[in-house]
Amino acid sequence: MNPSLKVLIIEDEPLTVDSYLTALKTVSVNIGILFDVKIAHNCDDAISEINKAKTKDRIDIALLDIRLPRSKKGNFLCGEDLGIKLKRVFGHIKIIVLTGHGNPYRTSSIMKNLNPDGLLIKSDLTMEVLIDSIKTVVSGSTKYSQTVIQNFRKQSTHDFFVDNIDRKLLFELSKGTKMSELPSVIPLCSTALDRRKRLMKEIFNITDKGDRGLLEFAREKGFI
Hints:
This protein has 9 helices and 6 strands. By secondary structure, the chain is an alpha/beta fold. The chain has 2 domains: about 150 residues, Rossmann fold; about 60 residues. It has a 6-stranded parallel β-sheet, sandwiched between helices. Helix 1 crosses helix 5.
C-alpha cells in the first residue's frame, strides 16, 4: 500500500484551491504517495480542521495562504497566525506558505514567524513550480520561489521583525481603536504599545505625526 499524507489547504480563492488539488494529484502519481486532503476557506474553517485533527488524527502538510478573512472572534487575523498554531499543535508538520505579498518586509516577517518549509510568491507560480515545490518539501528539503530568493539577498536592508503583537496593534489602529483603549485588547501597557508604534514608524521611515502613513504602508506591505 502506498504511504499516505494528510494535507490541509487553507485558501479562500476557489480557483487557487483547484490548482493546488491538480498539483497534489500530479505529485501523487509521480512519487507514489497518497494525499488525504482537507480544505479550509477561512480562519474559522481552518481552526475547526486543526481542532478535529488534533483530537483524532494529524496534519502532515499545510498549503497556507497568508491573506485570509480574520476569525469571527478576532484572535486569528491572517494565515500567519494559523501557521503559528499549526506548528505549535503539530510539531512535525511541513508548511508551504503561498502569498501574494512578495515585498522583503513581509517575506522577512513570515520567515521569522513561521520558518516555513516552502515560501512561494503567487506571481512566481506556474503549475510546474508548484508541483516541484510540493515534491521538494515532501522529500524533506526546503523550497523558495525566485522573488523570495531575491529578497534573501536584500535581507540586511529589511531585517525588521513584525511580530504578532505588532500586527494586532496595526489591525486595531486600522479599525479606529484609540491608543488609550488598546491595553484592553492587547496585553501590554500603553507605554509599551506606543513604543512599538514609534519603532515601526522609524524603521519604515514614516514621518507624519498621525497613524495614516503607518497604516497605508502596512496595507501596502500586507501586514493588515
